[in-house]
Fold each of these.
Amino acid sequence: MSAVPTLPIAEIWVYLSGNPLFALFLTLGAYQLGTWVYEKTHRHPLANPVAIAVLLVAATLQVIGLPYAKYFEGAQFVHFLLGTATVALAVPIYQGYAMLRRRALALGVALACGALTSIVSAVIIARMLGADDALVTPLYAKSVTAPIAMGVAERIGASPTLTAVYALVTGILGAALGRFVLDAVGSRAWWQRGFALGAAAHGIGTSRAFSVHVEAGTYASLAMGLHGVLGALMVPLVYRWVAG
Amino acid sequence: MPHNGAMHIVPGLLLILLFQGLGDLASRFLLPMLPGPVIGLVLLFTFLLVRGRVPVALGTVSGALMNNLGLLFVPAASGVVLFLPQMAAHAWALGVALIASVALTIAVTALVLRALAPRDEAAPPAQEKHP
């Protein structure tokens, strides 16, 4: 027996990687790092903290060879709160309700048109360019806020993971391109610009809208919440209608 | 005992979990077409309408969840590693579909809003003063 016992690195590693703490630490650490980069780049829409966190987690899993299922066992404690956060969306919707009533017709019709455009355009374009069904079906709920989109995805037989990824990419693209599209169609009122951004790009679009103008942000969060509820009703119907 | 920030969140969290539970039950036994949390959202919204204001604790918890919504879908979205080969093969189709679709959605929503905006707001100020 040697005087200095060698550390059983392999055993420690096996213990740590099977412990939920590791997955939680990785998830929160990656998100914290993403947030830090986002702030350092003065909140550039392409330096989205969630995208950075997902890339970091995915890369870490690949490098250390931890199976995704194993990681998720630990990270499910964070994942569980998605449902809780969905319920909590009632609060911003309620707070926007006073404004909603005055402009109810315009907001409701615009949201319905936007929601339908989001589904139909994405599905048609992806199909025309040859993407297969497993990749196309998760596109249906991509403009719906991710926690609701993933619940809806399960009901139409789409992968919740791909739905979350599309929702994330949609949010980032919407936040980055929104300004140019809105200028191109000559939209000027803050409430209209914010609502359009929230309807198309849910949470990420909403935080973008808030960073530009408070009224735009308030309307964006209203659009995100309403699109969540509308999407839960509409996506399965449209899916059945399109899929025949 | 004085209320501090930490004490404040428990009643808010309880309220949300209560409605989440009710939503899950309703989804299982009454409305299987809707996800439980969405039913919970509608029930909590109805509760707030009846109550007429947002309880402080609920506002605190909901604010914290909304501010960190992105964190909550990191575990699920990280599953993208399982789909990378498939997505890489159709990267072009998916990229074009996602970019075009989000741009069209923003444009259509904004245009419909402008067309339907309440008359008094749609009219530019110069026309309001028109004799």
Amino acid sequence: MTVVVKNLKLALPPGGDRAHAVDGVSFELSAGKILCVVGESGSGKSMCAHALMGLLPDTVTAESGEILFEGKNLLSLSPAEWLALRGRGIAMVFQEPMTALNPLMRIGEQIAEMFEAHGLLTPKERQRKALALIREVGLPDPERAVRAYPHQLSGGQRQRAMIAMALALEPTVLVADEPTTALDVTTQAQILKLIRDLQRRRNMAVMFITHDFGVVAEIADRVVVLQHGKVVEQGTADDVLLRPQHPYTRALLAAVPTLQPPPRTPLNDRSKAVEVIGLGKTYVSGGGWFRAERRVQAAKDVSFDIFRGETLGLVGESGSGKSSVARLVMRLIEPDAGTVRMGGVDLTRIGGKTLREQRRRIQMVFQDPFASLNPRRKVGNIITDGPIAHGVDPAAARKRAGELLSLVGLNASAMERFPHEFSGGQRQRIGIARALALDPEILVADEAVSALDVSVQAQVLDLLEDLKARLGLSMLFITHDLRVAAQICDRIAVMQHGAIVELKSASLLFAAPEHAYTRELLSAVPGRTSSSKAA
Amino acid sequence: MISFIAQRIAKAVIVLLALVVMNFFLIRMAPGDPALVMAGEAGAGDQLFVAQLREKFGLDKPLPVQLFLYVKGIVSLDLGFSFRQQMPVAKLILDRLPATLLLTGTAFAISFAFGVLFGALAARFAGTWADTAITVAALIFYATPLFWVALMAILLFSVTMDWLPSFGYETVGAGYTGLAHVLDVAAHLILPATTIGLFFMATYARMTRASMLEVVRLDFVKTARAKGLSDAIIQRRHVLRNALLPVVTLAGLQAGTLVGGAVLTETVFAWPGIGRLIYEALLQRDYNLLLGVFVVCSAMVLAFNLITDLVYRSVDPRIEFAT
């Protein structure tokens, strides 16, 4: 065994909602094996990772237990011993490669710093090693990458650089904390493969933290499932995924959406709620007296209809233009070309008061339930602001807000509370209630469940489905997650470089993808094969 | 890069001309003109004398014509003639400029270096007595009016202790040369430079501290710790460098105003610089001199903004020369 964690107890500061972040957790890491630690937010999985690196927040203390590595209990290391160990014996890769790299230092310098920290090699040799590492992790154009700043690389390239850094001193253990969560699915597939390959080549023990069972199926040899800081189940990947014993593991697995779209009742009403015809939008940046401008085509001749009662999915990777299209449809940004028609109204041709009145009909649910609600306003005000602006009597608006809150599964007393008093899932429900307060005909959901844990995600998806049926809504559902799209969409449009490359019913799209890009996206979804087995 | 600078200079010239026009009218909106002030001082208040003076100064011409003549002069780098002092404005300003630059430059260097140092120390030892002491001292110097600090400094270091001279640029009539002269000027410089410096030091210290405490929470600092880097290197290389970005912006904005911004201090310490020139020109309604000083100050602000942008570009690679 490379690392043995025995009965680890990490105490949280007093006054929190629980006494221990991690409560009696035991697991082992062995050379050449990947251990996936799975759990929802707040399960303590990141704390375990940080404990292994000696990077726990000051407020969290190791109360009991031990972490044995190379014959030493890490919990009793001196600060100097930690400095010697970090990066050399155990290295770490973080979730968000953009923020995990120093924006003011070149990639090569940041990798070379690993050697410097441990007093190894001369500056020249460090640079040479950095270049070799960059080659090993497959960054394109290594000579340039070594001199590049983080912002000059893409997300996937940055994560490769992070991995190169972590591997620099050939550590025996690699701790990866959600290393692919911030990446697109095709990039994620590449990074998973890279970690897999390197781990085999170097016979490392890997602790891989994730909330995504698809990733687990893709990469894990062994799995530990955490809930509220306790291990509820651990075993080989096959055992946990295919023969889960604990009800929580079963519930988590059941909440993972499958790529098989459920049978959907065909729409009997074929009238169009929205018609989008030839939308075009080009962002121009820079430009001026002496400088060439940069153009990004966010939408190229985008056309689709959404029928009454239908959910149209818009899927694609970051930068494909799906959010721009949503904003164009809502006319939050001005299109360069094309029209958006709702009934008899051309949304792109109206302005002023008429536009403001029409806005009521199309409402948005945002991705981040933390950022999209004003933290200084009570939930009741957040929900009633819209209707009151549209001339609804305040008392009536408040009464309706109470009804909406119970409709989305919250207590009407929520009106008097502030957003920070709610969990992520509850906040997303508030966001939905806010959108519904204006009695829209169309709901635009921009990555509305992407920030939520799978079990919460399943609940919010159910809620949206239910509301849509009850209120006769149409929905434009934007997501990068094909599993989610499969579950909720009637038809799906796949976007790449600002254009729709394929648009067809969900069942057809998953059964018989035609466009090469669609096929690439589908094959990159982690855990494709085993998750269908598990389900 | 070259085209960026060329473009910025072209824009700066336009801004400068707009400022000249604005200042021109602003000054003339104030009651009284140089002719009235001079006639009043001479005790010769009759209309004919005033009219003669106005004709001599060109003040009898219609405003647009005056403006045209003035702008024409500026374009050919002629700042006009001060009738009060009977000297070209450019010469008056150039005579005073070195003293001001010496004062404000020293003040700026002191305030930036020590401000960042104290801010970094406060952040590093956040929550301890050292942090509290630095923060409270910074708050006091930030809140106290400059002239009061100046007067107290004179009282303490010149009057009571008799360590430092209380006014002027050098000891009058001493005739020092060489090193003795340098030391003499330096002794005169300490009080006024420190007075200005303390205020700016306080702002830099507070900003550096806040900025560092923010940066230290960022992910890349955790990455640095995960590398096994020592705390000293992490603080200096990863935290401080990133934390300095907003401080550099602030410093750039303030550096531009330092030329004209020392009016109070120069007046209290009788420092023969631009600040006192402004004060005198204002009292005497010396239009041309006042306008000339304004032009030079504006040009300084614009120049320092450009320099700040260039410095910023070299400390933050994410900034491109966007327009």
